[in-house]
Amino acid sequence: MLPEFEMVLPQTLEEALKTMAARPVVPIAGGTNVVVDLRSGRHTPKAIINIHNLKELSGVKVEDGWVKVGGGTVIRELERSPIIAEHGFCLQQSARLFANPLIRNRATIGGNLADASPAADTATPLLALGASLLLISASGTRLVPLEEFFLHVRKTVLKPDELIGEVRWQIPKTKSANAFYKLGLRKADAISVVSAAVMVEADGERIACARIALGSVAPTPLRVKKAEEMLKGQKPAAELFRNAASLAEQAVSPISDVRASADYRREMSGVLVARLLRQTCADIWK
After folding, report:
1. Are 34 and 110 a contacting pair, CB within 8 Å?
2. What is the pLDDT of residues 55-77, one digit of tens each?
3. Which domain holds residue 212?
4. SS3 state of residue 222
5. Is residue 184 part of a domain?
6. Is the pTM here over 0.85, yes or no?
């Protein structure tokens, strides 16, 4: 049973932000996380503000060399968007594996990130893409790199009066490839045991830069910075990928739970990183 609460229904984003600045309210969009928390008693707010129908928060576009996705954009739109397919393929891959079709039609990219689960399906591909979040409030905006957004399990830098207004990342100026893999106990509707995403940009025959992200292996989704630094300026090679995989295994701090042991998660982190590096480099240097 849900606790009693007041439901606030703003008609515009400006109205929503003013309400959030004036009083304690919990924002809800798709409700796929918040409603679960209400039922469990984790959240017992006196008021909830419904931002689901605010058009200012939805949509996917390209602007000045950046992909910009509204924080209220549903996962289904990420799955179907030709812009995401072209400029954020790893995010499209994660959207296809996100829960089930009913959830994808309701859950939003902003809600998935704000919930700050270590297993958030959109977090690893967005980290690999080098995404930042535009956080908005009645008093202004601030741009936060996604890797600085997560503080701990279900803790972020988001202030009580802020919303995730937009997720954005820059389109690479050189040839590049990206990919995502989710390891779960079944093919659909499953929380990830390990998730991984890789982005590689080319400079001639060498790797100009790489971003490697992992989920479900630490209190927050993370970047494997040491492996990224090692790959920069190198020619793709099997030994190079093995070394990157080893650094990925060293970077994680997984737990054991009902889905997998810590040792299994650590080993699979390396396996997935090596696999995705081979895949992305093969896509670039065909």
Report:
1. no
2. 999 999 999 999 999 999 999 99
3. 192-284
4. strand
5. no
6. yes
